[in-house]
Amino acid sequence: MYAAATESLIKQAREIKEEELQRFCGRIFKQLHTKDVSGDTVDSLQRLNLIVSATKYARELPSDLVMKLQTVLRSSSCPEQLQVLSSSIIRESSPPSVHSLCSDPSHDSRTFSYVASVVLTQAGNKEDVMPLCHHLLKSLESRLSDGQISRHTLPILSKMITAYPEILTDDQVNLVSRKLVDWLRYASMQQGASMSSGGFFSGPRTRQPAPLTEVDGVVVGNFFTVLCVGQSYTEDQWMNMYTFSMIKSWLLTYDTDGTTNTESALLKKTQGIHSQHQDDRSEVDSSVMSMVSATSSSSRLLPPKERLREKAFEYCQRLIEQSDRKALKKTDTELQKACIIESVSIMDIICGEDPSYVYRAFPCIKALYGRLNGDLTYARALLPIAQFYLNHSETAAVDSEAVFCQLFSHCPAEQFNEPMLAFEFVQFCLLNASVLQDRVANYRQSFPNLLKFLAWNSSGLIEEFVELLPSLIAPDTAIELLHTILDLPCLAAALDLQQRSACYHASDRTTWDQQGAKVAACLDAFRQPLYRGLFLYILRPEAGTGDTIDRLKMLHEILADMSESPRVVRCAQVVPVLLQVYFNTVTQKADEKMMNQMLLVLLERNSLLYNIKTFNVEVQKVFSTHLQALCRLHPPLIVDQSREILEFASSPANIYSKEDFYTHVVWVIGEYLSVSYDPRCTVELITSFFESLEAVLFEITQVRQSASPPSFSPRLVTVLMTTLAKLATRSQDLIPRVSLCLSKMRTFARSAPVMACYSEEDTEEIITRAHELINLLKLPNVAQFVLAPSAGGDSPRWHRDTNASLPQGMRAVSGLLHRHSSFLPT
């Protein structure tokens, strides 16, 4: 959220009129033509930058001002602040002609970088960028005296090939590859020259170059990398760092061998002939280089792309070796972690392009995993290692089960509160979902752990989990996963308590009380042995210990004081979304047994939900929708679970706490409790359902003087009436009973409590529906056709409302019986 003052400025920028903007641009144009740039000019440019940036659409600026801004942008003599503002304004405004910007590229590195940023932003196709590309390649080939141009070249080149990978020809790719090899492998070993004061009476003098050191302070004995430490760096050392930062994207963009079949054959021949030769001047002895095969000695004979691959591989091995050193500074420790992640990822790419590198890489990767395993501070580094094992363990015949067991069991359980790890971990699962399902046995079993990431970071990861959830559904754990999704807010509360409990000792009651009385009570319960089993289950690391627990209501009571926690509330908001994804996935492949189990869960859990505002209502809406879908896919469910459904439907208390779901249960009873759907549907079964629903309708529609207004909707009454009529047509001995029941509906609808609660349209709807049904039941055979069509005749349906309305056939018959009746839309 922006501050109030910032919001006001942005609003003003968005609402500025076109005429006012043109006048403002004219004033800026005049200011830019003055010899001396004042603070007013900078202030005006900043305001213009805000105006063009505050709207989604591009503002069109006067052409003369745009040309002047381009002149400022390309002028190396202008202050850098003006160039930055000009670049930003041009990028956000309507696209100018990028050809005019590229017509005469500046040789000044700073100016060139600002011009390039505009060109890459405004370019519409590859041709617009081509002049910039030619200038970049020319600067790579040249050796300017100041040496500055190249340092800005690589970031621009990296962004260019990301947007237009086909812009470089094979020869140009080879040219850049050769340059990258030189920068990556042959940087100088001395620190850059630095100027120091010679004292009060003497001028500055140049210090002699000092040797570079490792992160632990030892003098570097091998080639330069980004983990080499110095007070200042030479230009080629800076280029080394830039090269390493873009080598991954370069390899991914140009991932072919870069050689023809003839070249590949020649390469194999030269590798055999020259394997005994020494490498070039940069090859030195080290523990890393001892792992390199003899083929690396002929690296100068390799094609440029393959030589880059070879040198990048050696560079990554050296970085992994350097990461084992104990850094003297914390910042260097963080840099070591970043280098491990990048190095393993690059080695993974190289091994994917050339499987022969797999056998050279695995000893290094296995040793690295052995060193990092168990150290939670390196949890993010385990993900690229796991990716490497997933991609190449079969090639090298290496068992990877222990790696993934450790990854899925420990990282989510202990690092769920690390947002970056959570995002990268879920992305790893998304990227490899199909492979993980087939090859990693404990992937689907680990969903209780993976959902901890979502419970803690719900708003940031919901989109990823919507995509990931289908891959976690397995036949043997699908029901447990459904319970776990419903318990996700409980998991968020339990994780919160776990974090707080780890921070505060039990003896420190003062600190507990500072969290609030409610949280302190929950913390107390979290530490009590009596409830330990409940929390151990909700925080379990993997599936298989049971679908749910018997004392779930007790857990809800313990966590009641956490129900208003922002984290718990946000987590509850994502549950309906996940339930939609879950049911849509499961119903496509569920068998009869699973459908029966899901129906039981719907009946059981609609009254066993964590009491959070609007949470129960939203979940029950999802339950209602998918109850219909389940019964439509497998109508025998009604008979299979008749006892549980009858028990639920016969309780009027369910109406007041879960009316929407209860209404849908009544509807599916009337729709699918028929011998046409299941031959096991006997008259006795139909009668038992009829009597239960009849008793419910009688109870909720009794007219008493002291009765309070009904707290249920008229829709429930019409659905109950229609369902009783449907059941009566399937056992015609029940028709007199339902007719008597329906005849009382006018009295109910016209009673004072009902008139005070329902609108005139609602009461007329109840009376009209009862009247229609009574007339229809006078013709039992017609009623059976209208109210209980055959299973094969329900597609297409002519319902307006598939839950409560009557088919068109009923309207036609009722119209014949009472031509002058008025029918309200339903």
From TrEMBL:
Residues 464-816 form the AP-5 complex subunit zeta-1 C-terminal TPR domain. Residues 1-294 form the AP-5 complex subunit zeta-1 N-terminal TPR domain. It comes from Cyprinus carpio carpio. Residues 335-452 form the AP-5 complex subunit zeta-1 ARM repeats domain. Residues 270-289 are annotated as: Disordered. GO terms for cellular component: AP-5 adaptor complex. This is Adaptor related protein complex 5 subunit zeta 1.
